[in-house]
Amino acid sequence: MEKNYYVCTGCGMLCDDIEVESEKNIVNKVYTACRVGVAHMKEGKESAAFRIDNKPVDEATAISEAAAILKNAKNPLIFGLGTSTNETQKLAIELAKKASATLDDTSSFCLGRVVEALLHNRFKVCTLDDVRNKADVTIFWGADPSDSHPRHLSKHSYFPRGTEKQRGWEEERTAIAIDVRKSHTAKICGNHFFQIPPGGDAEFIDALIAALAGKLPKTSYNFPPKRILELANILKGAKFGVVFVGLGLIYSLENIEPLVRLMDALNGKANFHLIPMVGHYNMRGFNETLFEETGYVNSVKFEDGTVKHGPEYSIVESLKAKTVDAALIIGSDPLSSLPRSVSKNLLEIPVISMDPCETLTSRNAKVYINTAISGVESGGSATRMDGVKVNFKPVVETTRLSDEAVLKKIMEAL
Amino acid sequence: MTNAMELYQMLPKTNCKKCGKTSCMAFAVALMARELTAEDCPPLKEESKYKESYEKISGLFKQSEGATETGLIVHEDLCFGCGNCVVACPPNVANDPYGVGSGNAPTNVNKLVLVIEDGIVKAQNLGECRRFGKNKILCNGCIVTCPVEAIEFV
Known about the structure:
The structure holds two protein chains of two kinds.
Chain A: E1 19-23, E2 26-31, H1 35-41, E3 50-52, E4 55-56, H2 59-72, E5 76-80, H3 86-98, E6 102-104, H4 112-119, H5 128-134, E7 137-141, H6 145-148, H7 152-157, H8 169-172, E8 174-179, H9 184-189, E9 193-195, H10 201-212, H11 225-236, E10 241-245, H12 247-252, H13 257-269, E11 272-276, H14 283-294, E12 300-303, E13 306-309, H15 315-320, E14 326-330, H16 334-337, H17 340-343, E15 351-355, H18 360-363, E16 367-370, E17 380-383, E18 389-392, H19 403-413
Parallel strand pairs in A: 5-6, 5-14, 7-8, 7-10, 8-9, 10-11, 14-15, 15-16
Antiparallel strand pairs in A: 1-2, 3-4, 3-16, 6-12, 12-13, 17-18
Helix pairs in contact in A: 2-19, 3-14, 3-19, 4-14, 10-11, 10-13
Chain B: H1 4-10, H2 24-32, H3 42-46, H4 51-62, E1 72-74, H5 84-88, H6 90-95, E2 114-117, E3 120-123, H7 141-144, E4 151-153
Antiparallel strand pairs in B: 1-4, 2-3
Helix pairs in contact in B: 1-2
């Protein structure tokens, strides 16, 4: 019997083996998905809502108000899109060109730097399916997939039997966690957990490179050299190694050069690949789409047919410098996720919020458009954390517009 | 979990045989094997000087009331459905190597011991569990792979 599987868009893993029981457009039971996925799948229930200044309005009024805000703004900011489909992201880029907008997504203060380097071919990469079938050594650095991507270890990176790893995790795989705290993932890694102080990642990388070259590894926080040498020995023996780079590592490094050096050193001795632990389900998709279009992964400004790029066009810097005079926020909640000193500047400009959920940003927005949850109520395609394109169809039907449809209507109104 | 000796220390130790066993030690062993409960020892239940011990022993076994035949308990409030146990469970792998054994959705849930339903692990078909039956062994595949200690055997 051929089963009907859905794709879960709860996180960057895009699990494609989810079974759902639904009745009258309400999801009753979800099989195989983790708790994050179940909550995500069961979220859709409200009917469409459009609000201006927190008062309910009809669809046409909300769209025309949103278009008017973008039209009147000299330099609007378009932000978010980590939880939108590839098609929506393409539309948003078109809209940004039309409105001469600054365009950015969460990757500018997240894993953008790593994805950019990936797209410039600075790292050797592989897919999660390769990891399942071949990987014998996996490193979780500054990442805790047990909590952020619950099925990561069981679906790809540690527990499953793969085509070339038939004997499973007990005999053929080694999982290593390098983190500042004993996370749930670190617990599973057991003795292969290396606890480093916050900010100590760059030094640990240098020590590890030294150990790989057979020198005595030294750190200012006196990490036992014997343990680093042990780690280096495991890594040297890897036939197919993978480094999963999490936010913990990226936030601790000033630039990604140490990581590039480490990957080069590892590849000098063994065979190592890198996969970023992308959180939002389609952040990597946004980076790739924008990269194809402009050559940059985030923080761009469209002006008279040209593209400008730089940190000053990221959401944090542009809000700090108050260079933007309106904002269209799609599927993101910067008022909650950014520091208050930065995000409070959002309160001074008209904000259009498009989100399936009510958030702090949507409550303080001038215009709020309640959109369908992509992956649950609307379909499309997205890019998984390892760069694989995944197509998905909606699980249930809804009266809510998808963010793609809303963007189309705003474009027409412009 | 406790052992029979610890249970014995809490019993009256009079060997009164009112429970039907030959000695208090035998009663402790029967308690441990879940053949009898603290209720079956009349002095322990009725005499006030054993009240504390009675409550303690009852409390010890309370948590295992919801346990399955193999003694497996799932703490549903802790489990977040990562599926590590489902993929690592040896009978699961043997019965569905290309489904759960390879990290995918189950191809046939009827023969699996552990499945994820609504984001929480559910134990079923315990006849397949390696802790059950004539050749049982103390397999701990689902316990050591759980990051939050949501599975326990009593």
